[in-house]
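Researcher: Dear colleague, please comment on this protein.
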Amino acid sequence: MRKLIYGLVALATIGLLATSCKKEETYSFVVPSGSILVSMPGEEGTTSFDSFNIASIDVPDYPKGWEIVNIDLYNGTITVKAPSKFDDEEEREGYLSLIGYTPQGTRKNLTIYLAIVESAVDYSDTPANCYIANKPKTRYIFDPYTGGNGIKLETESVKLLWQTEKSLINYLDLRDGKVSFYLAEAKAEDDSDEPTNKVMEGNALIGGYDKAGKLIWSWHIWVTNGDPREETITLNGEEMMNRNLGAFTNSNRSTDGAEIFRSYGMYYQWGNKNPFVGPQRYNFPGNHDDILYDNKENNVYLEYEASSAKVGSLEWSNANPMALIKGNKDNDYDWLFEGHDNTLWSEDTKTDNDPCPAGWRVPSKSVFENITIVGSYDDMAWEEAQPLYGWMLEDTATGAEHFFTAQGRRNYLDCRLDIFNDDYDQPIPWSGYYWTASVAGADASALFFDLNTATRTWNGIDVARSMHRANALPVRCVRE
């Protein structure tokens, strides 16, 4: 047990005040990051805390070998130093216990995770709207003052907006001009302590706020095992990821529901960088949105807003990245209220609003121009084809065959999940859509294919279908 006391008043005085004050007091004591992570033995690390009406701080315990350098109540910082040697049971990680006392003697207990995390991935020099995180027990770092393809931001603080799994993103912090977060190692399925060397897969969104507390930008964190940048296919001479943006696999004709669901990924309104989750399950029962959690593991929910002069703008969307914007009839069902901004995504270059990781972008429609449904799959009985939730597509220029998942869309009218086509009399049980960066007049161009229940030998494919821009569709990124 190691015990230290830092304060503005002596604890003896606290005891006297506690007996003389009868009024109910207001106080708070919070460490937003929840951790101090250092990159090597012997290194110092600092984190901030927020407090109100906390007069002193007691440190009852901390890991062996660590040193409490300073706790600054005035500036709200805690600095520790990691052990430099490990020959006497010094600990590489553990918890720092803190007790904050009010002048009346009320106590608030906190714990902070301390660890030497030698594995780090730094994206500071490769800004984007999406960062891939695929290594467990690793600290990830990015630049909070740069968004998109280089837009400058005046970020003062960051916050986890949502995550698809509890404790997916850990120890989020903004310090020394960089944002960092930590990925834990996934637990073994048999609940043993055996290392898995894997991450818990999921997606998350981190928001950046300015001095006034306004949300000004957000970054998608794509947590997946493997590396989508290395698992690619070639279409029309372009290198394309073999999975959807935000997906964890390509189901590749599997009929297993879990594998199909893992292949869906995120949904995007055309030209919008913000990712939106899909259904709770692969077959859309009840068309319920996937479950989301905040940093306190409370449920948070997507919002649905009608486009208007206030809502239907890029600035409003950036400040409200959890809001899908319904199509505006007077603007040809674009989520933007006035005009069609054809520069949000580009056929030729990566834009500030491109949702793909650094080095990748939304493809032009030309990438799909040579593909068609593989003949044997076109002739397949519906009962055999439907459980695949996808289609084998052939590149007629090379003969190569690739599987594309059919994960439906969020439709332009109300932004709700939709795995059927628009035919009221003969709805199709599943349909596949993939955005391109190409525009088609007031609409934008997308790859579209479907399975027809009534005439199984005519299964539709359109490599450049005009789709209203308020639709939210998946994206397959191509290398820049």
About this structure: The CA atoms of residues 349 and 357 lie 13 Å apart. Confidence is low (pLDDT under 50) at residues 8-22. The longest strand covers residues 107-116.
